[in-house]
Amino acid sequence: MDEDRSIELRSEKVRNIIGRMPPALVRYGTVMIVASLLVLTGIAAFVPYQPKISMEVAVAQDEAGKVHYTARIPQRAMNWRDDIAFITGAPPVEGPMPVRFLFHEVPDTLHVSRSGGWYETEIYPVDHDGQAIKIPAPFAFPAKMELKYTTFWKWVTGKVSSK
Fold first, then answer.
1. What is the pTM of this model?
2. CATH numeric code, 51-152
3. How do the domains of the chain map onto residue ranges?
4. pLDDT tens-digit series, residues 55-65
5. Three-state secondary structure of 101-153
């Protein structure tokens, strides 16, 4: 009863079965990929996003005791000038130092170096008057320029269209 049935692998029937992709797999696979892309696009259209741009803030105190804050705003950040919410940073000194700043205007003078261009402007503390502190020597610290909240989709399409 144990017949040796040899299957001929090169026969026409076997090649048709092995070489044919099931149409249901192709159809449902395509539907799943398109549905996944639509869900990701929908999420990107509604998820809030707040872009941040790295910059530097310099702090100095004049002889009268008034503290001055100067920001180096990167040239690339000026594309989003109207969307700037505020500047945040954590000064590396002890004591009550402001961490949120605003600026009123940016001068037209562009400073250029090997690392790129920047605009230098005076910034003002939002939540601190800055007069009760003593600074032994001028210093600089890294900060972030936080832009207004938007959706991830709007931010990406804005970056693509600005290039």
1. 0.64
2. 2.40.30
3. 13-46, 51-152
4. 889 988 888 88
5. EECCCCCCCCEEECCEEEEEEEEEECCCCCCCCCCCCCEEEEEEEEECCEEHH
